[in-house]
## 1
Amino acid sequence: MRYESTRGGAPVLQFSDVLLEGLASDGGLYVPKQWPLITKTELRSLANIPYAEVAQRVLAPLVDPSISFETLGELTHRAYANFRHEEVAPVVELGESFLVELHWGPTFSFKDIALQLLGQLFEHELERRDKKITIVGATSGDTGSAAIEACKDRAGIELVMLHPRGRVSEIQRLQMTTVESSNIHNVAIDGTFDDCQDLVKAMFAQEKFRSEMSLAAVNSINWARVAAQSVYYVTTALKLGAPDKKVSFCVPTGNFGNVMAGYMASQMGVPIERLIVASNHNDILSRAYQTGTMSMEPVRPSLSPAMDIQVSSNFERLLFDLSERNGPELAEQIKEFRRSGSWVLNPEILKILRTKFIADRASDEQVLSTIRQVYQKTGVLVDPHTAVGISVAERQPPSSAAMAIMSTAHPAKFPDAVTEATGSVFDLPPELSSLSSLSETCDFLPNNLNLVMDHVREVTK
Ligand SMILES: *Cc1c(COP(=O)(O)O)cnc(C)c1O
């Protein structure tokens, strides 16, 4: 399998190079040159086998020839061995629909499913090349802890994670700062999540610093994350009757990484009826879907902070695939969008978008009432991100295809919203309640690129 950049101006690479590269050198994102196909017979053969084995078989053509089938199997088995649920991504009934529980990993959000594998892939590849990398990342909460948990104590990796000081929840902060490992470096920045993300982008843009530090990425610009997420679309579809029946997926969306993995599963042959893009009030995608124009607006904080995003980076991967893979043209359009803040989508692309996808939003009030109603009707507690998905899914017209809603975080990660909605105070799982008795390690820096770069050099020495 060969990978090309969405902007058409970077070298074509194989999987292991894409893994370590993160962002392509032309500023684009890597995508496979063609989608591997899973036949109906192959799909059937994946039913009722362990998750790690499905991952091995689904991902094999994507990592070929970088990683052998046998090695990939060792890595997927190790990645999913310490999930708190044997099925990794169990599917449970919720009224007429289904919840896909993606929060049984070590840090209680769906980010673990991709990052646990990414940690294994990094370590394997670095060992093989006898190389070291510095991962710099920015987090609004969930990516940070999942990346730290996946990379702690791994040979060849130094991880510097920036978070906006005072703007992540207490549990999210403790999940990052209480990890004691010499290769993990937490930095709280005086600024917002966007400031942290801009600092990371600026570090990547400094060619000399990027190569001096061998910078690598753990956010969903890294292709391996999207690839890893396609696996639970396969396992869920099989549990709900594929390949004989079609399934729709409703996906709480921020950077479009999760739903991009669903698109990929669909292109690979998983029978998906619709992919439903569910946003909170930061709804650039659902506005673009309805009006045909993407227009930037300032980010407003919501009850589902992991989805408080202005421009969804992975949407570029989808537009590239839908526009007959015209990289240079896409690069021009993105440049113009960044300049003017507005982008009128090509009517042909909009047409395909509207046949495959649905996009809608849920307000904070709808999120709270959804959490309350689900609890009253079923006794199940759901987190605010999952509630965005449920609220949007409930408004869809009835269909013969089963509706699978991605549950992206455990309710205990967002206890304030859940308690506000239900009035019920619940006990945190021991893994989370024990955090407050541990000591924290974190450095504090102003929002200043040079100081942050000096700090990265210093702590990774
Ligand atoms: C990251 C995150 C999302 C958004 O996922 P994307 O892949 O960025 O669209 C949704 N819910 C939770 C809980 C998250 O941590």
## 2
Amino acid sequence: MLSSKLTSFLFLITFVLCSQNVFAAYERVGHACVSSENFTSNDPYDTNMKELLSYLVYETPSTGFGMGSKGEGQNRAYGSALCRADVPQVNCTDCLVQAINDIGSLCWPNKGAVAWYKYCQLKYSSSDHFGVIDHSNWHVNYGAENVSEPTSFSQKTTNLLSSLAEEASMSSKMSAIGNVELYGSEKLYGLVQCTRDLSSMACKECLTRSISALPNCCSGKKSVRIYGGSCDIRHVAL
Ligand SMILES: *[C@@H]1O[C@H](CO)[C@@H](O)[C@H](O)[C@H]1NC(C)=O
Ligand SMILES: *[C@@H]1O[C@H](CO)[C@@H](O)[C@H](O)[C@H]1NC(C)=O
Ligand SMILES: *[C@@H]1O[C@H](CO)[C@@H](O)[C@H](O)[C@H]1NC(C)=O
């Protein structure tokens, strides 16, 4: 899956970028540990997982999504990476390079982790999670500002995000971005996306579930992001 040349290259860019500490793209918003098993440093799982993460940094930016597995049996590591749909490739790369350096220590010695960053998200685990909606891991983030008319705002938000969810589930990149007019000169912007291991139907189900959580978590909030293990939604009024 991975040549030693590539590994050296990634090590080099990782080293250069980190030593300069120039990361606007890097900002962890949350994380969760997802496995019931542990591993030890430098055991075969550790090696497989690290190689897999390097592969994902290399593989993901051109399309915004990457997935893969490495190793055999109980040492096999599964992982996927997703960049925010509106982020240029260079910032996707920056985010993932930072993410692979950050994620390893978050859950150690747990065999699985998912972490969400401003421009990307990364997940690895010792079990095959591809194609299955992750309902367990999510992170909610909202701005302090409230809207003046929560009821109609909530309706507009649900309508916009639901139509984007429909669009995303049918699109090859499993993402959709759109906006609608609000009061005065304000607009409501929405973005939804799924990890592309999901089927079209599962993507829609994942997004629909997150959208239906909005009234409970974030009623009246102008700007909301719900990050999930399999799908993300966000809206902001500007
Ligand atoms: C995994 O490691 C954690 C932290 O060291 C420990 O609390 C936990 O009991 C371990 N779990 C297993 C299944 O060994
Ligand atoms: C994306 O990366 C470029 C090049 O490093 C940088 O100039 C730009 O500010 C980044 N964009 C964002 C939105 O962070
Ligand atoms: C928004 O509403 C919440 C709950 O009513 C309140 O605690 C908070 O201070 C409000 N935020 C602003 C910026 O006014």
